[in-house]
User: Which sequence fits this backbone?
């Protein structure tokens, strides 16, 4: 379906208002400021920063966003009350979304008024807001379950009174694309119209696209599709769909992944692994056939390159790994193997993956060593570890061998892990100047006796290794992972092993 006259589709992000209304989500003023900055970097046109009527804390947050003096238009949600508009004005917003009841369920059941009064109130509120210099969008609440003739009357009244635009709101995610298209087309005939879609039927994106096709020029979205119930339509999905399928540019796509991670961290709502654009798996290939194809041609199993949305392609090892994936991973580690050996390694990787285990680099290298038969001596080996916490200063001591020499050292730190890592570094000397690039802890089981998996990525002289260790003691797991990583990084560098200080 060709999209016509879509040259001016703009994006409104309501993560800070509708997104924050998601169950269990609450953003501090500082978090709202960070997210607003990231939205600005992404080139979002309108940022709905909150509902000024919610309370003093919310008004402080909105004011801090308006203080940023962003290029984006910053707005507040307002109920159909003059007092709400006054509170929004106190926050110095550029504009407001005036929400008036549209369906009879809302007109009569929620607000307890009549259609005639809604029309009158709409005109008065719009005049009040525009008289105070505000940009005004009128949202007909529950618009998708409203009598379309009445919705049209409300919006004609709003535009006559000076509103800048109207909005077709599928408040409860009830409509399908055809209904959305019809309603938006009728409102678009009156003046500029926006679309506010929810994902209760999983139709958020389809409805947003239908709205654009029918003339909507502003699409309301939230980062990661956060929002009430099943959420709003996701900003990243609308943006990539508009650009990839229809060639309509909206936001800076390469900012989307950072934005997604910022919002996930701030809200505590994790990114689902299988989600379009932002999910962990969106550009990860594990299956043997897919990995093989991807190694021959990047585009083989991807609709667009991951860099488009600020991401990188990953080839994961696991149950579905085939020989091509194993060979590519071994090459990354400069491990040579014959075809037969690669086949044997692939079988072992698959077996490990069958147990539901993620196959890490260290697992792969251990398997490769075993299969290729060049078992080597460890360069660094941990013999003993003691860590004490609970006192004033957490301390740890380690005994390890480095290139055959036994060494003992101790260290202090902010906690037992930190102290132990410092002891290891001290024992190894200058060779331990590898950078700890990443440190992740995952609890494998739920209780306080949980087995934890610590995964570390260390880099030294442009070489990087990732090692995971699972143990019930987090300090032990951390130190073992780090020692294993150093062992890998130092294996060919005997010079670095001469004791530094003594
Ligand atoms: Mn909503």
Assistant:
């Amino acid at each position: 379906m060709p999209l016509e006259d879509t040259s001016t589709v703009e994006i409104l992000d309501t993560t800070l208002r509708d997104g924050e209304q998601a169950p269990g989500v609450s953003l501090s003023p500082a978090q709202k400021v960070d997210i607003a900055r990231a939205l600005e970097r992404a080139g979002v046109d309108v940022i709905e920063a909150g509902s000024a009527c919610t309370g003093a804390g919310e008004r402080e947050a909105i004011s801090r966003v308006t203080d940023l003096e962003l290029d984006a238009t910053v707005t507040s949600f307002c109920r159909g009350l003059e007092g709400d508009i006054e509170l929004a004005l106190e926050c110095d917003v550029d504009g407001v979304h005036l929400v008036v009841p549209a369906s009879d369920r809302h007109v009569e059941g929620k607000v307890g008024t009549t259609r005639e009064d809604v029309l009158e109130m709409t005109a008065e509120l719009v005049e009040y807001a525009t008289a105070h210099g505000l940009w005004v969008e009128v949202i007909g609440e529950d618009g998708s379950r409203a009598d379309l003739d009445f919705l049209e009357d409300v919006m004609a009244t709003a535009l006559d009174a000076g509103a800048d635009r109207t909005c077709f709101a599928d408040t409860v995610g009830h409509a399908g694309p055809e209904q959305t298209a019809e309603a938006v087309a009728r409102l678009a005939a009156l003046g500029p119209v926006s679309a506010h879609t929810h994902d209760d039927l999983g139709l958020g994106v389809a409805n947003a696209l239908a709205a654009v096709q029918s003339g909507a020029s502003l699409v309301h979205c939230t980062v990661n599709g956060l929002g009430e119930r099943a959420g709003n339509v996701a900003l990243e999905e609308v943006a990539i769909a508009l650009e990839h399928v229809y060639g309509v540019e909206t936001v800076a796509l390469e900012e989307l992944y950072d934005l997604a991670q910022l919002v996930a961290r701030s809200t505590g709502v994790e990114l689902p692994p299988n989600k379009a654009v932002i999910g962990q798996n969106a550009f990860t290939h594990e299956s043997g056939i897919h990995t093989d194809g991807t190694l021959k041609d990047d585009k083989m199993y991807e609709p667009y390159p991951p860099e488009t949305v600020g991401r990188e392609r990953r080839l994961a090892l696991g149950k579905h790994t085939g020989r091509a994936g194993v060979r590519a991973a071994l090459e990354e580690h400069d491990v040579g193997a014959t075809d037969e050996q690669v086949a044997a390694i692939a079988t072992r990787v698959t077996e490990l993956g069958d147990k539901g285990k993620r196959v890490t680099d260290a697992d792969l290298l251990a398997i490769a060593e075993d299969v290729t038969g060049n078992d080597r001596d460890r360069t660094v080996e941990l013999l003993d570890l003691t860590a004490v916490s609970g006192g004033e200063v957490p301390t740890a001591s380690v005994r390890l061998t480095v290139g055959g020499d036994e060494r003992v050292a101790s260290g202090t730190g902010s906690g037992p892990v930190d102290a132990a890592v410092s002891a290891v570094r001290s024992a190894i000397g200058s060779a331990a100047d590898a950078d700890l690039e990443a440190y992740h802890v995952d609890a494998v089981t739920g209780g306080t006796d949980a087995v934890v998996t610590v995964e570390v990525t260390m880099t030294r002289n442009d070489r990087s290794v990732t090692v995971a260790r699972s143990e019930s003691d987090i300090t032990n797991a951390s130190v073992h992972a780090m020692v294993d990583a150093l062992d890998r990084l130092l294996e060919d560098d005997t010079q670095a092993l001469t004791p530094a200080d003594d």
Remarks:
- Residues 18, 171, 196, 198, 232 surround manganese (II) ion (CB under 6 Å).
